[in-house]
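Attaching the record inline, Q. Sequence:
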Amino acid sequence: MGVALSRQHPDLEVVLLLRDPYLCKDINETHRNSRYLPDYDLPLKVTATTSAEAALKGAQYAIHAVPVQHSRAFLTEIKEFIPPTLPIISVSKGIEVTTGKVMSDLIPSALGRKQPTVFLSGPSFAAEVMDERPTGLVAASRDKKLCRDAQALFASPFMRINITTDVMGVEICGALKNVLAIAAGIVEGLELGNNAMAALISQGCSEIRWLAEKMGAKPATVSGLSGLGDIMLTCYGSLSRNRSVGVRLGKGEALADIMSSSKQVAEGVPTAGAVVSLARKYRVQLPVLTAVAQVLNGQLSAAEAVAEIMRLPQIEEK
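Structure, as predicted:
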């Protein structure tokens, strides 16, 4: 996102606030992120630092891209350097396992105050953004001016930004699609075929809609870019981290081995457990998403989970 900003606004100074001093040094010296995006040159005006004070001093916006499970600790540690009026644009997707909070609740909780915040979500693999391939996203905030500001900031010939006030819809879809992508990967890993894949994703989309609407989301959001659009990308795209976890589970690998061998975070793994809690809280039956949680915690094997789903009562669609 820093590169997208710098390319569209070459006069801006874009500072990446990192936790790893070695990666920081690497970016500043080679102008490449050798760990995650080694094949791409970064604009010269994109620099890195581990100092929150230096990064945030005089900032117009802060883009928050820390994995959800680490966001509270990260924000709590740097909150003294975040001015109360600084708009945060959050691109983190998921549900905090310990509290069940999405980022729109987590951010004010961690900072101890309300903070102007926009939530940016949608089908967007990082490599394709770096390649300047056409990408569509949604900016969500209860403050429409903030939505439009984020839209103006990121919109480019390669990036289209829609806006909405449905923060919950955008957030819950962005979190749950990662869990569904693990299920899609399991189907791929078990080599169950295209019929099974289509049936599973269709059922998963229904489950996401049932829960999202119970939590106050608008149906249009679930069927839009940040809902169905992101679900399609994450479930079918070969670059999806969550789908890759599912493929390896379907092939019989242990979750611990999969996680230890991956450089990047698959948010669907911790989110799956939180979904089970939300299903209980809102009294919604989510057989596919719940089955993913059962596979991840060792209650069922991937093959057993599929068999359980196939034994579900056959229903009339409504």
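The radius of gyration is 20 Å. The longest strand covers residues 135-140.

More tomorrow.
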